[in-house]
From TrEMBL:
Gene3D superfamilies membership: P-loop containing nucleotide triphosphate hydrolases
Family that this chain belongs to: Belongs to the ABC transporter superfamily.
InterPro entries listed in its UniProt record: AAA+_ATPase, ABC_transporter-like_ATP-bd, ABC_transporter-like_CS, DrrA1/2-like_C, P-loop_NTPase
ABC transporter domain: residues covered: 6-233
Keyword Nucleotide-binding found: yes
Record keywords: ATP-binding, Nucleotide-binding, Transport
Gene Ontology molecular function, alphabetical: ATP binding
SMART domains: AAA (SM00382)
Protein's organism: Demequina litoralis
Pfam families in the record: ABC_tran, DrrA1-3_C
Domain of life: Bacteria
Entry protein name: ATP-binding cassette domain-containing protein
Length: 298
């Protein structure tokens, strides 16, 4: 695979008089796990549906490795739609083999892949059960297996982690990481920001149909790290400095969080802390994804 980047450019779409997507532009790079984050109704599902071609946006385009999304390219996508959509009355293993066959995988290979995925997702015992008799979390695991069965070149997953227990989440995360390491661009949406923060190399943050931040997850958080400090003064539970240009945004057992405006001097904060007592901790902090999200959405 050469440059297997998924590029989404200028996607715009109205549903009636409601603008669902407003110039959505971002990239999903090969070998990277990219988290797609946004509030309910922000436009994640609509964007994913436009990428895989199940809906046609009013404007904008999508390319993969620089080429248009032809039918041929679309067959190489592993897509897990929000509305799911497997066959409830078909046996689990049979269903996976069937899907692989439809996507052009040979019989023996399809059987081998289905068995390997069922094993990896801890579903071997349920292989001969009808899908609808499985718990929702286990049905979800089968959905993931279905998206992976043809070893796709691109993975687009709408909330793959919702409803999974912690063990299934780890198994799923490991599968996605494995595919990313094989050079596949992976885009998945989630409302579980702690999980996205832990897993993702890249982020796309969408708000009201517009991408408000995208790129390397660590870099995005660090860009906003410049002016927030955490200070712990020994023996004082809730030290609160009263200095010009500084705002206390939180205090507790982990110390006091202080935002400094552009003109405030961190050394003045340190001096004030030292005057109050022994300084046990003084550092710039990197905001969590939850804080970053709240900030960019604001
Ligand atoms: N088929 C449709 N008809 C009309 N409006 C729609 C349709 N699909 C989506 N929308 C609207 O488009 C906007 C974006 O919806 P979308 O489902 O893409 O958001 P989302 O980010 O996936 O939300 P969630 O996190 O709740 O799944 C919302 O305002 C939604 O109501």
């Amino acid at each position: 695979m050469t440059d297997a980047t998924l590029a989404v450019h200028g996607l715009t779409h109205d549903f009636g008089d409601r603008r669902a997507l407003d110039g959505v532009t971002f990239e999903v790079r090969p070998g990277r796990l990219t988290g797609f984050v946004g509030a309910n109704g922000a436009g994640k599902t609509t964007t994913m549906r436009a990428i895989v071609g199940v809906m046609r946006p009013d404007a904008g385009d999508v390319t993969f490795g620089g080429a248009a999304m032809t039918l041929e390219v679309r067959r190489r996508i592993g897509y897990m739609p929000e509305e799911r959509g497997l066959y409830p009355k078909m046996k689990v293993a049979e269903q996976l083999v069937y899907l692989a066959r439809v996507l052009g995988v040979g019989k023996a290979e399809a059987v081998a892949r289905a068995e390997a995925l069922l094993d990896a997702l801890d579903l071997t015992e349920r292989r001969d059960d009808l899908l609808h008799t499985l718990s929702l979390g286990n049905q979800q695991r089968v959905q993931v297996a279905a998206a992976l069965i043809h070893e796709p070149d691109l993975l687009i997953l709408d909330e793959p982690f919702s409803g999974l227990d912690p063990i299934a989440m780890d198994a799923m995360a490991a599968r996605l990481r494995e595919r990313a390491e094989a050079g596949v661009p992976v885009l998945f949406s989630s409302h579980q920001l702690d999980l996205v923060e832990r897993l993702c190399d890249d982020l796309v943050l969408i708000h009201q149909g517009r991408v408000v931040a995208s790129g390397d997850a660590r870099a995005l958080r660090e860009q906003r790290a410049g002016r927030r400090y955490r200070v712990e003064v020994g023996g004082i539970d809730a030290w609160r400095p009263a200095l010009a240009g500084m705002t206390v945004v939180g205090s507790g057992p982990q110390g006091t969080l202080v935002d400094l405006d552009g003109s405030a001097d961190p050394q003045a904060l340190l001096a004030a802390a030292q005057a109050a007592g022994p300084v046990e901790h003084f550092s710039r902090t990197v905001p969590s994804l939850t804080e970053l999200f709240a900030e960019v959405v604001r």
